[in-house]
Design a protein that fits this description.
Helix content: 10-25%
Distance between the termini: 21 Å
Largest sheet: 11 strands, antiparallel
Radius of gyration: 28 Å
Shape: globular
Mean pLDDT: 76
Number of strands: 13
Low-confidence stretches: 2-27, 184-188
Structural class: alpha+beta
């Protein structure tokens, strides 16, 4: 009787833990987003490709509605009902320029990446990153032309080099077990161990 009671209690505890786990049963996917970027700059040897890579955690997203059409207030501007921008904090970046590899440590202000959407369709991307030698800066004309320009710093000021192109790098999401699921497995293991000890104690010598 006591053994059955113990078994029922163990199952009740285990069930409760799994019930908690069911609330967050979906695995936590890795939220790391990576982009390659490139442009060409003109030098004494002609056009030279410049390339780099950066990444960010999409949990840092900040969303700003730049324009939203309100029904009954005339016509939507440029045929757009919703114009919004999503920004992210870049924390890993590399870029080769002037025989040097620049990283986040060379930034003189926070690095950010943003994407603009019109009617939920992406229409442009921008990167802001400034060092002692160059600046990546977003630019745009209304909602028709939005992008990023690369400027080289000189004694005469900023010199425009080229417009930057961005290419998302596909990455497989990494599943991470939820803490509640790990707790459930721990309870199951503990229950099994206790049951074995109880049965062993009841066996005749």
């Amino acid at each position: 009787m006591s053994a059955n009671l113990f078994t029922r209690s163990t199952l009740a505890i285990t069930g409760a833990v799994f019930s908690l786990g069911a609330v967050a049963i979906n695995p936590a996917n890795a939220a790391r987003i990576t982009y390659d970027f490139s442009m060409e700059t003109y030098g004494p040897d002609g056009y030279t490709p410049l390339t780099g890579r950066f990444s960010y955690d999409d949990a840092t997203e900040s969303k700003h509605i730049l324009y939203e059409y309100i029904e009954g207030e005339g016509e939507p501007q440029w045929g757009v009902f919703l114009y919004e921008s999503k920004g992210y904090k870049v924390d890993v970046i590399e870029f080769s320029f002037l025989d040097k590899v620049y990283t986040q440590a060379d930034a003189i202000s926070p690095i950010s990446f943003w994407m603009d959407y019109a009617n939920n369709e992406k229409i442009g991307t921008g990167l802001y990153w400034e060092t002692e030698d160059f600046v990546f800066r977003g630019w745009g004309y209304r909602m028709e032309a939005i992008g990023t320009a690369f400027y080289r710093k000189t004694s005469d000021g900023l010199i425009f080099e080229q417009t930057v192109n961005f290419f998302p790098v596909p990455e497989e999401p990494t599943s991470v077990p939820e803490p509640s699921i790990l707790a459930a497995f721990s309870v199951v293991g503990l229950a099994g161990l206790l049951r074995k000890k109880r049965i062993k104690a009841q066996l005749p010598d």
